[in-house]
Structures are given as structure tokens and as C-alpha cells.
Amino acid sequence: MLFLKYLHDLEIERQDRAELEGREHSPIITGKYRWNAWAAPKKNGAFDHDAALTGTDLTDFVDKELFPYLASFRQSAENPQTIEYKIGEVFTELRNKFRSGYILRDVLEQVDSLAFNTQEQRHELSELYETRIRRMGNAGRNGGEYYTPRPLIRAMIQVTDPKIGETIYDGACGSAGFLCEAFEYLTINPDGTRKDIGGGWNTLQTRTFYGQEKKGLAYIIGIMNMVLHGIEAPNLVHSNTLNENVMDIQEKDRHDIILANPPFGGGERREVQQNFPIRTGETAYLFLQHFIRKLRAGGRAAVVIKNTFLSNTDNASVALRKELLEAAELHTILDCPQGTFQGAGVKTVVLFFEKGAPTRDIWFYQLDPGRSMGKTNPLNDADLAEFVELQRTRPNGRKSWIVNRADLDEDTFDLSVKNPNAPEAEALRSPETIIADMLARDVETANILENIRGML
Q1: What is the three-class DSSP state of 172?
Q2: What is the pLDDT of residue 15?
Q3: Which residues have C-beta within 8 Å of that of residue 177, sequence separation ≥ 6?
Q4: Residue 361 CB burial class (10 angstroms; 0-12, 13-18, ≥19)
Q5: Neighbours of 53 (CB within 10 A)
Q6: Can you give 32-92 as a three-state secondary structure string?
Q7: What's the angle, vertex CA 108, arms to CA 103 and CA 109, rounded to 5?
Q8: What pLDDT does 303 receive?
Q9: Residue 148: what pLDDT?
């Protein structure tokens, strides 16, 4: 409903602009399917209750007429890179969950009261949508599978520092959080004002953001998220990225920036594994091979991965670490604390690398917010501010250090997070000492109880 209301307000803006410029405007959605015809009919500026469908009439219209009409855009659109085609894809996948037309009518009236006519109002809508996705994640529902904490995404974008004219890619885009935040980074100043990007607007809309997603629900969430953020015809593809043979990737297929949090675990089929030189059932390892080859020479990447990738001794892990170190300059590893991802029981790291020259040295930063992470204490931008600032100069410090490539074990290429600057932990007591202390306290407790008995 929010999506359709947004499209309605966008249509009004396009029509007004066309009238000012003295040209014709053909609306995307026409006739009885327009928002102001079925969802919120008006008479003399006020809601027209007589013309408004309700009850079974409303749900029948939505299920049997509106959704099939919108889904048909997929066939009638000129090409897949149009907003019409994306609308068709969205409503091919979606189903109306309202069984009561009376409740649906009440909700439609509430949604109609929202306005998305200005950039500020649209930004508020996109924030509302993001909040909904995050809450799905916190509740352990489907949306959370595709939700990466936005402060972490923003830090990854600040370090990679994309520019207008560069292409940005996420091969496991989920709800498109990386692409949406990159769009915000390129269009909004830190103080919230809009950047003056001049003639770069068309480039941002059509030739900057690219993504692929395997799962239908995630793909639909991603399209709507990008449209609501202001990217009118997202270059998202509904497909399994891993079905592409990495040896077939050509220069025209590569990108300047890669930002991703590929799924962990999984168990890809053997025929999918055949598309990669390092064959493994670990989905994230296959994605990392894909990203290395998808990056242009001089391109920058930031990829979230399980921290066990740094130290696992199986053949695939060792081979992939070796390839990464040789094919790219792995310049930074951010060690994230437990609880960074809500509901996930794994620790993660972020790999920052640049395609081209091999790795010379790696700067490690151990993120420590100073509190236990959780639903009520999620990661925030302030937690990552020091990392973003220090990463520019990569100094040694209490939470950061550099490991030289030449010092790595040539057999394992182990990259384990071992902070040499952390204060030494107090030595653990021996088992004998612990047992002796326990026995002494037992004797002390027995004496106290005996004294109490004598007082009774």
C-alpha cells in the first residue's frame, strides 16, 4: 500500500513537471486502477465514501482486478530496465493478505493521509520501510534474513568511498540495503541536505546500482526499497548469482565497487560448485570468489564474512585466502563483536580489498563498543566512527595493528584476529589452587553454621 501511494504521488509530480515544460505525460497506472480511483476517491477535495469500495467488493477488486493488472506490466513494459517492468515483477510475487475488506478500507484511508510529494517526505517513507524490515529481522521473521545493520553498511561505504560515475554491485542484495545506503551517500550531505549533483542524476538512476538476488521475497523487498529511496528503475536481477561460471566473467561485466553480505552456510549443489575453481559447499566462499572476479582492476570491495574464514584449515579456506591475498590488496579487516547481527550466532569480519596488486600488509581493527550487543543495544554509527576515522591512516593502537604479508604462514595463510596490543589477561589459577580455595570456604561455612546453631 505504501508502495502504491508512493507511485501515485510520483505520478502527480511527473504530471505537474510535464505541464510546466509544456509536454504530454502518460501515466503509468491508468483508469480505475489509479490510487485516487479505488483506494482514496475524492469529491471536492474530501474523501468520497459513496464512491469508495469496501467489504467484499474491495477485496475482490484488489485480488481479481488490481493485482493482475499491475502484474501484467511485466509483459507490456518496453524493457526490464523500466519502472513499469519492476512494478510488474513486484505484483507478480505479492498476494493480498487482507481477508476483510472493511479493515483494508480503514488502512487505506490512513495510508492516503500520508504525503510523499517532497524529497524529505520520501526520505521519511524509506526510513519507515527500513524500520519495518529491521523489525522483521529482530522478530526472527523472513525480512531479517536480508537485513544488515545500517551503521555497519554506512561504515563500509565510507571506507570504499564510491563516486558518481562508478558502478556499485551487490550479488546477494537481499533488501538492497547496501545499494540504498550508497545512493544516500552519493546524494545526501552529512547534515541531511541534498548534494548538488548536476548532470549526474541520470547516471545515478540508470547506470550506477546493480544487484542480484536468488529469493523471491528478498528480491521484491529490494525493488520496493530502492524505488522508495528514489531509484525509480532498479537494475536488480532475480537470479542465483552462483549459477554464473566465474571463468566466463568479462571486463564488461565488472564493477568499480562491490558491497555485500553474502549468506553464510548453505550447501550449494555440486553442479553449482563446478562454476568455481575452488569448489566448496560453503556459500559465502563461492560468493567471495565471484566478487574477486567481478571487481574491475583498481576497484574497491567490502564484504562481510564469518570470522572462521580467517583461520579454517580445510583446503578450500586455505586456497581462498591465498587467492584473495594474491589477486587483491586486502588492506583492512574489521573484526565485529558478537551480536552485531541480531539473532545470528556467528561472529563476523569485514574484508576490505582493492583489485590489482597483491597484498603487502593488512590493518586489523577490533571493534569494541564497550557493551554487550543485543536487540536493545544494537550497533550504532558512533560505535564505528573511530574505525572509519583511523582507517584512513591505519595506525597501530590498543584496538588496531598491522600484519605484514611476509610474516604469514605460507602453508595456511592464517589471518586469525590476534591483537598484540591488547593488555595481557590475568593468568588463570591452577585447578589445585581453585580446589584448595573451595575446601577452605567449605570449612569456613561449616564454622559459621555451627556458631549459629549454638545461638539457637
Answers
A1: coil
A2: 87
A3: 130, 133, 146, 147, 148, 150, 153, 225
A4: middle
A5: 20
A6: HHCHHHHCCCEECCEECCCCCCCHHHHHHHHHHHHHHHHHCHHHHCCCCCCHHHHHHHHHH
A7: 100
A8: 97
A9: 86
Which whole number is the average pLDDT over 262-274? 84
In the three-class reduction of DSSP (H, G, I as helix; E, B as strand; rest coil), residue 331 is classed as strand
Which residue type occupies 349? V
SS3 content of the chain, % helix, strand, coil (to 5): 50, 15, 35
| Cβ atoms within 10 Å of 428's Cβ, excluding its own | 8
* Residue 144 pLDDT grade (very low, low, confident, very high; cuts 50, 70, 90): very low
- CA geometry: angle 61, 67, 70, nearest 5 deg: 125
Q: What is the mean pLDDT of the chain?
A: 88
43 alpha-carbon distance from chain centroid: 43
pLDDT digits (tens, 9 = 90+) for 321-379: 999 999 999 999 999 998 888 766 688 999 999 999 999 999 999 999 988 887 788 89
Residue from 230, 201, 225 nearest 213 by CA = 225
Give the span between the Cα atoms of 357 and 355, in whole angstroms: 7
Query: What's the start-to-end Cα distance of the chain, in Å?
Result: 75
Using DSSP, state whether 435 is helix, strand or coil.
Answer: helix
User: In sequence order, what are the beta bridge partners of 366?
Assistant: 335
Give the 3-state secondary structure of residue 111.
helix
Nearest Cα neighbor of 259 from 164, 338, 155 is 155
- Rounded to whole angstroms, the Cα distance separating 331 from 352 reads 6
Instruction: Tell me which residue of 117, 94, 169 sits closest to 13, measured CA to CA.
Output: 117
Cα separation of 123 and 121, whole Å? 5
Does residue 139 have a pLDDT over 50? no
Given the DSSP bridges, would you call strands 295-306 and 348-355 parallel, antiparallel or unpaired? Answer: antiparallel
Alpha-carbon Rg of the chain, whole angstroms? 27
Write the single-letter amino acid at 10: L
- Indicate whether this model's pTM tops 0.85: no
Q: How many CA atoms lie within 13 A of 83 on its CB side?
A: 17
Burial class of residue 108, CB neighbours in 10 A (0-12, 13-18, 19+): buried
Identity at 428, one-letter amino acid code: L
Grid coordinates representing 73 are 506490466
CB-CB contact of 309 with 285 (8 Å): yes
